Amino acid sequence: MEPVAEPIAIxxxxxxxxxxxxxLLARAGIDLEGLVADAGRRLLLPTPLxxxxxxxxxxxxxxxVEHGIADLGIAGLDTLAEEDRDLYxxxxxxxxxxxxxxxEPVDRPWIRRPGAELRVATKYPRLALRHYRARGIQARVIxxxxxxELGAVTGLADQIVDLVESGETLRQNHxxxxxxxxxxxxxxxxxPASLKLKRARIEGLIDALRDAVDPALTRTA
Length: 221
Fold this sequence. Notes:
This protein has helices at residues 16-27, 33-37, 61-66, 77-83, 125-134, 149-153, 168-172, 192-197, 199-212; strands at 9-13, 44-46, 52-56, 72-76, 88-92, 98-105, 118-122, 139-143, 159-164, 175-184, 186-190. By secondary structure, it is of the alpha/beta class. β2 (44-46) and β3 form a beta hairpin.
């Protein structure tokens, strides 16, 4: 009698990353494309082997994994670096590639002056503060949750720290990139306790995903 695979719960980010993740998971032997395609508006999907798939906002994936609701998930390095959670990150999946950058209005570049305070709009307050402090710049962070570009366009902020993929949105809003803070891709994340309790199953998935990722991409240890 063959051993029954341990059921696992996986948290997947809705949106563009999910579209990139599903083919990669399928190459690793985790075929969820049909399950997700038939989901409709359901966000919690049972799998045939007794596991489950959670479809959540990308920013919420680490929360579900950290609290043990999901054994593993897929999350962007931007979210992981901003929140600094206690999670295992065994594989850089190489999907969802983008950059966290500093940008400012083309016609209103910020000029550093002694004692001057820089106003920065961002969804990533910790990463932004860390970046400016490392450069000895006094920055006041204004946290936004919507279109960060508007913060610079309206004069709410001198600069913004935001994710860009092609940079087209910046150009259309007459903003220019100043520098890159972080190159971002999505990572497989695992709850440490799940790795201990379901080691054989999860390590098998980790190995399969490593084999499925383009070997030219960097993998975390």
